[in-house]
Task: structure prediction
Amino acid sequence: MMMTQELRNDLAHNAARLEILEQKALADKADALLEEYAKAHLPGVYADNDTFYRVRWNQAKTHLYAVVIIPTANGIRFGQFAKGAMSRLTHADMLTADQCEALSLAWGNCVMCGKGLTVKASVTRGMGPVCAKGYGKP
Ligand SMILES: [Zn+2]
Result:
């Protein structure tokens, strides 16, 4: 069957429309991924206004949760589960390993596990070897 000019035009229009829709779907997907990635997605220490949070995986490793880090006269302690914190915290709020070490030094406890820093190398560095090595890793 010969293609009529009209049919050819129709096909061209549909192809163009399909291409635009596909591009839009891809762009939406990229936006959603970027939005997801902007959220806090790694364990570590996060700062939000004047509050510091320790973010860790739950036991089943299905989601991250946050607790408030509470400085005390002798070191730090970890507060209760910080409800709603994970919906506010973004990846940009995450401290670098260097910042964590500085914070641990200032408080005298590893900000990730709360242990006192006793080994000289750890005291100098600010975090114990395990926490320093694993910092931020999923
Ligand atoms: Zn530690």
User: Anything to note?
Assistant: Helices lie at 5-38, 85-88, 97-107, 120-125, 129-134. The pocket of zinc ion is lined by residues 110, 112-113, 115, 127-128, 131 (CB under 6 Å). DSSP finds five helices and four strands in the chain.
